[in-house]
Amino acid sequence: MSGLKVIFGIVVFYVCIVALHFSLNRDPRIASATPSTLRIGYLPVTCHLTCPVTDWINKRIKSAGNDLKPVRFSGFPEMKEAFLSDHLDAAFLLAPLSMSLIQQGAEAKVVFLGHRDGTAMVVHKDSEIRSVRDLVGKKIAIPSRYSNQFLMIFKGLKDQGLGLNDVKLVEMPPPDMPAALQTKSVDAITSGEPWMAKSEIEGFGRVLYQAKDIWPGFISCVLVVRERLIRESPERVQQLVDGIARSGKWLDADPENRMNAADNIGRDYYKQDPKLLRHVLSKPPDRVTYSQLRLARSEFAVIENLAFEAGLLKQPIAFEQYADARFSDRVPQ
Q1: What is the model's pTM?
Q2: pLDDT value at position 16?
Q3: Binning pLDDT at 50, 70 and 90, where does residue 62 land?
Q4: How many CB atoms lie within 10 A of CB 102?
Q5: Residue 5's pLDDT is what?
Q6: CA dist 45 to 118, 173, 218, 252, 281, Å?
């Protein structure tokens, strides 16, 4: 009888071990959590280019501090949910979206910028749209209502004495936008590159304006990090910010660096034709830039005011509530 008890106990032990194994592997937060790896969410857009470039450079030089794991998403809604559910340690998110999420209680902080400029408003080549006023009554695809592209449209309409009710906005993943414009499912598209350039290269799109033409130094996406990581491993956050900053300066230092990034990142990380990135990173060279990515209170104040006025923020939000500038302040200009 005692022998049966021993056998029964052993069986129960192994059943518990197996159950625990499957339980852990069913929970992505635990299954993917390795202390040596930082999971960073990004989209295949030039606003997020410094993320895969940092990983690519680290692998080339066999950096001992290479603990970055870029995780590609096709749209902001999926990446936002992954970040909020603790599947990501950091992510390149839209600036107004980041502010709103933090205002709603997300434990995270903006620590660095992803880029400057790199956004266009594109219409069909046969379109009669020639100005912002011509957008009245038209259907415009945007990456998210909580994007600076949305705020840029809001600002452009406001400057013309118009409002958001004068246009029809449709949220759409950036990779889907060129096809929608080609089939004339929408009248205009705007998001981070290279998807605007795709419609231009393939001959059915025409640039109505570049963001830098109406909003100099335009910022779309920012690097957002979980507060737990900031609290427990500030040195790793600094290492991440330093790496992103170095990658940005490398991209802007030499046109050949940009072409190398276009070929390798386009193929291996973005899974798209490298000619798209080659076009965006060279025609013209300042179409999107990656230097001067430190956080500036005055620039975010513009975004805050527009976001509040457009109804994206429930109330005004203090810079310190959503941003932790100490990491970017340590990056040399």
Answers
A1: 0.85
A2: 37
A3: confident
A4: 19
A5: 43
A6: 9, 11, 15, 17, 12
